[in-house]
Specification:
Layout (H helix, E strand, L loop, with lengths): L6 H11 L3 E3 H6 L4 H9 L3 E5 L2 E4 L8 H9 L4 E2 L1 H7 L10 E6 L12 E6 L1 H5 L2 E6 L2 E6 L1 H10 L1 H4 L1 H12 L6 H10 L3 H11 L1
Parallel strand pairs: 5-6
Antiparallel strand pairs: 1-3, 2-3, 4-5, 7-8
Helix pairs in contact: 5-7, 7-9, 7-10, 10-11
Length: about 200
C-alpha cells in the first residue's frame, strides 16, 4: 500500500477541485485546517490574494479567450495594468475591460468586442518587461509582474492608487519577489521616487 496523502496534498486536491481559489471559510468547510492553510502559505504552496482568500500556486493562469482575441487582433499590443494584474493574480479587482498598451505611433484599435482600454507608451517603456504566455493555444504578450507594478504607479491617477498599493502588497507577500527588477522598471517608467516609499514601508 502507498503512503497516505499528507494534509497539504489533500488540501491541494481540494483547491484544484474548486477552481484553485478558496476563501478560508470555504476551506474550513471542506476539511482543511487553519494550520494547514498557514503552513502552505508560508511554504509558498498557497498565495494569499487578500485577507481570507487563497489561491493554489504553481498552476497556469486561467484561460481567457478575450485576452487571446485582443492581443491577436491588435498587432504589437501588450496586456497591461489591471488586466496584467489579474493575469498574475495580483489584484482582487475584476476587470470589465481588456487593458492593453500600444506604441504612441500606432493606430488606435477599433474592436466591437470585447471592451478594451488603450494606453499609449513610449517605445522603451513598451519594450520593457514583456513576457509571452500561452492562453487558449495562442501567444499572449503581457508585462511581467514587476513591470506591471511600475506601470500601475505611473498610471495611478487612471486606475486608482489603491489598486496599485494593493497589488504591491500582494506581490510582497509572495516568496518569489525581485525588488531590483521592480525598481529598475520604476526608473524606466519614471516613478521610482513615487514607489520607493511604499516599498520601504513594506520592508
Amino acid at each position: 500500500m502507498g503512503n497516505a496523502p499528507s494534509a497539504a496534498e489533500r488540501a491541494a486536491a481540494i483547491f484544484r477541485n474548486h477552481g484553485a481559489t478558496l476563501r478560508m471559510s470555504e476551506a474550513l468547510r471542506c476539511g482543511i485546517s487553519r494550520t494547514t492553510l498557514y503552513r502552505m502559505a508560508q511554504e509558498g504552496q498557497l498565495c494569499r490574494l487578500t485577507r481570507g482568500l487563497y489561491r493554489l500556486e504553481g498552476l497556469p493562469a486561467p484561460g481567457d479567450p478575450d485576452l487571446a482575441l485582443v492581443t491577436q487582433k491588435v498587432s504589437g499590443s501588450v496586456l497591461c495594468l489591471v488586466s496584467a494584474l489579474a493575469f498574475h493574480n495580483l489584484t482582487t479587482q475584476i476587470p470589465h475591460e481588456v487593458q492593453i498598451a500600444i506604441s504612441r505611433t500606432s493606430r488606435y484599435p477599433t474592436l466591437k468586442h470585447p471592451p478594451i482600454r488603450v494606453f499609449r507608451m513610449r517605445p522603451e517603456v513598451l519594450r520593457a518587461g514583456v513576457e509571452t504566455h500561452a492562453v487558449d493555444g495562442h501567444a499572449v504578450r503581457v508585462f511581467s509582474p514587476e513591470k506591471t507594478l511600475a506601470d500601475c504607479f505611473k498610471y495611478r491617477n487612471k486606475i486608482g492608487l489603491d489598486v496599485a498599493v494593493e497589488a504591491l502588497r500582494l506581490y510582497w507577500q509572495r516568496r518569489r519577489t525581485d525588488i531590483d527588477a521592480l525598481m529598475n522598471f520604476a526608473r524606466i517608467c519614471r516613478v521610482d521616487r513615487v514607489i520607493r516609499p511604499y516599498v520601504e514601508a513594506l520592508a
